[in-house]
Structure formats: C-alpha cells, structure tokens
Write a structure and sequence with these properties.
The protein contains 7 helices and 59 strands. With 744 residues, it is mainly β. Among the domains are: 36 residues, Laminin (Ribbon); 38 residues, Laminin, CATH 2.10.25.10; 37 residues, Laminin; 34 residues, Ribbon (Laminin), CATH 2.10.25; 59 residues, Tumor Necrosis Factor Receptor, subunit A, domain 2 (Ribbon), CATH 2.10.50; 58 residues, Tumor Necrosis Factor Receptor, subunit A, domain 2. It has a 6-stranded mixed beta sheet, with helices on one face. Strands 39-40-44-45-41 form a 5-stranded antiparallel beta sheet, covered by helices on one side. Strand 27 and strand 28 form a beta hairpin. The chain is elongated, with a radius of gyration of 48 Å. Keywords: Calcium, Disulfide bond, EGF-like domain, Glycoprotein, Repeat, Secreted, Signal. One of its GO terms (molecular function) is calcium ion binding. It comes from Oreotrochilus melanogaster.
Length: 744
C-alpha cells in the first residue's frame, strides 16, 4: 500500500486531515470545518443569533473555531462561554478615594458623611453650607453638579445614565455596566430588564443567571408540592459525585447526568484519559496550523503571523508581500519592490542617505571634481569652469588656451538675415547654419544665439563652438542693438506651417545681410489695460544684438576702411528697419536644420498641436524629456533626431547640430562632442587616440607623456596630472590613483 498522506500526493483540502486506507485514502474535514474533505469551509458557530455559539455576551468566529468575549466589567468564566462580574473594588479600591461598592458589571464610589462625590466620580469633597451652589451639601444632583451663570445649579449624569424628569436623579441604562445584568440587557421605560442565554435561567434577584438544573432546584424550594422531588435529587447528589461539589472534579465544563458527572472541554482543548483534565491542542504541530509563515500556539487556539515585509490576509493564514513602492513618497527617486522588502535607488549625481532619501553629491568637494581650474556644483551634476583667456577642453574638465581659428578647417557657414517683400508685406528670415545655442529661460521667454562674437566678453558662450578658419578681419566689428515689440503674442519658438513655407518661396528678394553673430532674447509679459474689467494683454519684447565682421578684402582704392564701415552700418540699419516691419506683422522666422520657426505666436495659436512640452523637448511615457546630446529637436517631426555624420551636438535641447571642423560629412552619427566627429578631423587631432589613465598631453591625445613621480591621473584624454600634495611621492611613474601616493 502507498501512503498518499505521508508522501503528500493526496488532494485533501488544507483544512482537512488525510487518513490512509488500504490501496487509497480518505479526507476528513478538521473540527470546526464542514465539507466532504476535498473542499472544506469554516463553520460559523456565531451565525445563530439565538444560540450565539453558546456565548452569553459576544461571539467572534475565527477559522476552524470561535471565541467568546465579555463586555467591560465582566470576565470570561472557566467554561469559556459564561461571563462573570469583575469585582473592581479589589484592585486599588476601584480608584475610589473613600468607599467602593461593587455592582454587576460595574462599581460605584461613595463618600463618608460630611463629604460628597466630585464630578470625576472618584474623589470626595468636604461639604459646605454656604449659598446655593455645587459646594452646598443640599445641591440635590445624583451624579454631577454644574454651576449656572445665574448662580443656580444644573445636574448631569455619568456616561451610561439618563437624567430623570426631576432634572436631578439619574436613571441607569444598558450602556453602563450592561445595566447591572449578567447576560443580556434591554432598555425599557421603567429601566433595564435582564435576560439570560438559553442554557441559563434568571435568578430571583432579576440580574444573575444560573444553570437550568440549579434554577429548577431553586424554584422547587419555594414550591411545597414538590418537596419529595427535591429530597430525591438531593439524595442522588449526596450518594454520587456531583457538579455542585468542586465542579465535579472537572477541569472545565461539568454536567450532571443520571450516571454521574460528565466533564467536557471547550474548542481547542482535548479531554485526557482521566475524563477530567483538559489539555490544550497544539494546532501548530500539524501542517504549521495552515499558516504560511509563523504559527504560535495559544491556550485553546493558535495565531498566524508573517515575516517582516508581509501582511496577514483576512483568512488569518495567508501572508502576502507588502508592495512598499505602491505607497506615495516611499523613495525620493526610484523604488524597487522585492518579496518582503524594497530598495530605493537615486538618480545619477545623487547619493542615498538613510533608507529612502536622495541627496545631491557635491562632486566639487572630491578632488575639485577632477577639474583643472574651477568647479561649480549643481543639483545632480557639476560643471568645470575656466579663467578668462582659456576655454574648456572637449573632455569638459581641462582648461586650454583659446585658439581663435583652425588653419586647416573650412570656414563655418555664417548666419544670414534675408528680407523680402511681397504684396506690400515684409518678411524676414534668419538662417543659423552653425554655432547656435537655444536656452529656454522660462515658460514664456528664451534666448537664442547664432554665430561667434568676435570679441567674447561677458556673453561668452556656455559650450564649445566650431572654430572658424583663419582669415584676416578688420577690428572692431560693427555692432547694432535693437528692441522690438509684438502685441497679443507669446514667446514660443514653434515650427511654421508647411503651407506658409511653400508661399515664402515666391517672394521677391529685398535685402541679404551676412551676420557674424546674433543674440536674440524674447520675453513675454502681461500688460494690464486701463479699466477694471479689461482683460490683460499679452506683449512680447524681442531684444536683438547684431555683429557684422569687416573683411580686409572689401577695402579698395575707391573705398577705404571708414567708407566700408559706413556702408556696412547703413546696410545693417536698413535690414533692421525691414526686420522691425516684418516683426510687427509677425512675419519674422528663424531657420534651423531646414525647418522654419515662428519667433512668437498668438496665445490661441501657440497651443495648437504642441500641448504639454516646450521646444527642445518630446513626450515620453507621459513626461517631457529634453533631447539629449548627440541629437537635435526637429520641430517639423516633433522628435529628437540623431546628428548626421559630419555633425555633432554637445548640449541638450538644441534645434540643430554643429558642423564638424572637417566639414566633409564623414564620421559617426549621433556625435556628442568634437572628439567623436571622426573622418578627416582625425588629421587635425593628429589622427591618434586619447591618452590612457596615468598619461597626459597638451591636447589629451597621443603622443602622451607619463605622469611623473608624485602625480597621478585616473581618467583618459587629460591634459595634466594631479599632484599628490604634501610632498608625497608615488610608487612609480604613470600612477592612476590617489592610493598610489605613498605616505612618509
């Protein structure tokens, strides 16, 4: 015979017991459950309101069992069902200062002569005879006395009592000490009426409940016709063991029968072979009590509990993982849930402190952020800065001398301001083929620069620019600054519609001005109209700075330098006048990567098709994400597009990619800085790779020199080595870590 129960190959329910039989097995539901064994469900012993599981007060159903509980002021009897009064006066005199009187389900404090009970119903106050107030011995209130503003008194009752019609006495209700009843209490007009559970009968005191056998004896004692029956019953009890004496020797419940006493045990206990003693059943020994994790045996029952990070389900047995990540603000940044636990992770540039919080890492505090000169900490990142006269190397850390031009590079295409006139309407285009920088300052303002200023001062650009080719220019350049105003428009750089772009091709040329550098700032602000109910008006201001380079080849015998300068100034002024007219009619556009953008738009128009994200950002998983380095934002397609070979982009959220110095269209797509340009630019950087850690060179590329003793360099492509400091030396040349510095 195969023992299916021992091998756990049976299909008995979790709340059933498997019993092996020859060639088979059978399933029997555990006590407290019903069913055929393969399906068992809990029996709700408390379901019958009349019987109430045998509980005289409250019955609580639990899986496979039930529990009886008592109201406040009562305690559970040994049979686990009946409720007995607690004598509160035995414990610290019930908290009473003087006299404590126990009652069924409660107690009362009283005072000696010459004192009366205070409002807290526990302490006693010495009586007074002066005036009609609560300190007077004859105030008349049964419980609480309150003085009224007019000098009289008002009576109140303790919780569970009601004020009588005479406004002085207090009537007891079932809400206080169960109305003085041992079992059940019902409120009536005349006061609480007591009742008993069906196994009990009401005592002649009208409050206490006694077992029905005892009630029969008691009633017969007052019935003269049944004296003979009483004698027979008394004789029988004297001759044999009876529950009236020492509970019949039973541990728990005792019942008189014709053959003597019969002992029984409550649920959760088993009767021992002596027929008297009750022993607790340890439910945890069989299948861990059906608990998923921990089972703890209790007197008459058991309890399931879970490991940390799990919660107990309503069946009081199954443990389910708590998903801490579903709670709001569990982690500052990213939350990962694990069975019984969770983990918080921080974004790059942040460090975890405690279990859930993320704090900014001050990279500048650790070896100056590996910056050559200055280090500026930002939230989640940092920037290296250089002194005047130097610029940041492409590795974003070293400072190198500012080179004004590259001898072998092709000239970078210049910005052009082209204006035309069709049907009496002026239209202007500013094309930006290289060295552009788009900075969205706020929701309604942005700054845009195009080209490289000849004399870089305060407005020095935030990133590397494509270096121009070396050609002679006459300094200083021609500079013009103009301010324009557009009514009823917001500063939003949005792509121009394709229909309008087609029409622009038919316009007659008016002016063409090649510009070295343009810095354009658009700012929107609401201007209040006069009058209370007038709506505020949207006004946009555009500030434009132009620089035009003077070339030596333009100077001739007929027109000297001053002559060329005046011509250029007049040409720029004429172009600005035309530009002003085109801006007033909202006919000014800027061109990036073949897409024309409107500088400012009317509020209703600004929201069309571009809800949510600003220029330079795209919608991803419901969030606005800025276009990363190596890509540019295409307004025509409303997406981030990788830079084509021969171009690069080292700044986020830009509208075009910069041409590589070689300008031959070779290299990799998506280049994130000049060093990734590839192609013929490798000739400019000597066609060699970066210096490895522990080495350096003037430009970060080979040929490289070894870091001398006393210095180290942990990063590739650097132009210097860091000194150990304090006169310390390294174990060898070419050290790659501060740990290589030897202490004296």
């Amino acid at each position: 015979d195969v023992d299916e129960c021992a091998e756990a190959t049976d299909d008995c329910h979790i709340d059933a017991i498997c019993q092996n039989t020859p060639k088979s097995y059978k399933c029997i539901c555990k006590p407290g459950y019903k069913g055929e064994g393969k399906q068992c469900e809990d029996i709700d012993e408390c379901e019958n309101d009349f019987y109430n599981g045998g509980c005289v007060h409250e019955c609580i159903n639990i899986p496979g069992n039930y529990r009886c509980t008592c109201y406040d002021g009562f305690m559970l009897a040994h049979d686990g069902h009946n409720c007995l009064d607690v004598d509160e006066c035995q414990d610290n005199n019930g908290g009473c200062q003087q006299i404590c009187v126990n009652t069924m389900g409660s107690y009362e404090c009283q005072c000696k002569e010459g004192f009366f009970l205070s409002d807290n119903q526990h302490t006693c106050i010495h009586r007074s005879i002066e005036g009609m107030n609560c300190m007077n011995k004859d105030h008349g209130c049964a419980h609480i006395c309150r003085e009224t503003p007019k000098g009289g008194v008002a009576c109140e009752c303790r919780p569970g009592f009601e004020l009588a019609k005479n406004q002085k006495d207090c009537k007891l209700t079932c809400n206080y000490g169960n109305g003085g009843c041992q079992h059940t209490c019902d409120d009536t007009d005349t006061g609480p009426v007591c009742g008993c559970h069906q196994k009990y009968a009401l005592h002649s005191d009208g409050r206490t409940c006694i077992e029905k056998d005892e009630a029969a004896i008691e009633s017969s004692e007052y019935n003269a016709t049944s004296v003979a029956d009483v004698d027979k019953r008394v004789k029988r009890r004297l001759l044999m063991e009876t529950c009236a004496v020492n509970n019949g020797g039973c541990d728990r419940t005792c019942k008189d029968t014709a053959t003597g006493v019969r002992c029984s045990c409550p649920v959760g206990f088993t009767l021992q072979p002596d027929g008297k003693t009750c022993k607790d059943i340890d439910e945890c020994l069989v299948n861990n009590g059906g608990c998923d994790h921990f089972c703890r045996n209790t007197v008459g029952s058991f309890e399931c509990s879970c490991q940390k990070g799990y919660k107990l389900l309503t069946d009081e047995r199954t443990c389910q993982d708590i998903d801490e990540c579903s709670f709001e603000r569990t982690c500052d940044h990213t939350c990962i849930n694990y069975p019984g636990s969770f983990e918080c992770l921080c974004h790059k540039g942040y460090t975890l402190y405690g279990l859930t919080h993320c704090g900014d890492i001050d990279e500048c505090s650790i070896s100056n952020g590996s910056c050559d000169y200055g280090c500026l900490n930002t939230m989640g990142s940092y920037e290296c800065v250089c002194p005047p006269g130097k610029k940041l190397h492409w590795n974003k850390k070293d400072c190198i001398e500012m080179v004004k031009c590259l001898p072998n590079a092709k000239p970078a295409p210049k910005a052009q301001l082209v204006c035309s006139k069709t049907g009496g309407i002026e239209t202007c285009f500013l094309s930006c083929p290289s060295n552009t920088l788009f900075v969205p300052d706020s929701e309604n303002s942005y700054t845009l620069s195009c080209g490289v200023p000849i004399q870089q001062g305060k407005a020095q650009q935030k990133r590397n620019t494509t270096l121009p080719s070396c050609s002679d220019s006459l300094a200083p350049p021609i500079k013009q600054k103009a301010r324009f105003k557009i009514k009823d428009a917001k500063c939003h750089l949005r792509p121009r519609s394709k229909e309008k772009t087609k029409d622009s091709g038919k316009q007659a040329g008016l002016d063409n001005c090649q510009v070295t550098f343009v810095n354009l700032k658009c700012d929107s602000s609401k201007k209040k109209r006069r009058g209370r109910k007038s709506p505020s008006k949207e006004v946009s201001h555009i500030t434009a700075e132009f620089e035009v380079e003077m070339k030596s080849e333009e100077v001739s015998d007929t027109c000297n330098t001053d002559c060329v300068r005046k011509r250029m100034e007049q040409k720029l002024q004429t172009a600005i006048k035309t530009l002003r007219k085109s801006i007033n009619k909202q006919q000014f556009y800027i061109q990036f990567s073949g897409t024309e953008y409107e500088v400012a738009q009317k509020p209703a128009k600004a929201t069309e098709g571009h809800e949510g994200c600003s220029t330079g950002q795209v919608l991803q998983d419901g969030k606005c994400v800025t276009c990363s380095t190596g890509t540019f934002y295409s307004g025509e397609h409303n997406q981030c597009i990788p830079c084509s070979p021969g171009t690069y982009q080292d700044t986020e959220g830009q509208l075009t990619c910069e041409p590589c110095p070689s300008n031959d269209g070779q290299g990799v797509a998506g280049a994130r800085n000049v060093s990734e340009c590839g192609g013929k630019f490798n000739l400019i950087i000597k066609g060699l790779r970066q210096c490895s850690p522990g080495h350096y060179s003037s430009d970060g590329f080979k040929p490289c020199r070894v870091c001398p003793l006393g210095t180290y360099q942990p990063e590739p492509g650097r132009t210097l080595c860091f000194p150990c400091g304090g006169g310390l030396v390294t174990k060898y040349e070419g050290a790659v870590s501060f740990q290589d510095c030897e202490t004296k």
